[in-house]
Amino acid sequence: MFNAYYTYLALDLAAQREAEAAQYRLAAAARAERHDVSRFRRLVARAAVAVARAADDTVVGSAPTAA
Description:
mainly alpha; single chain; 1 helix
């Protein structure tokens, strides 16, 4: 009687641990993907800021000054 119960507990615990491992594995995969995407987004944002600063310098540099 107890052998079947202990076997059930062992299988249940193994299933829980496998589900937890799968959860951590999926979370790690999601973070790795996001890291690459965020690196690309940072690069695009830096390029946009550089373009905006260059345009601002051009506009401010050519604007007449008030005396």
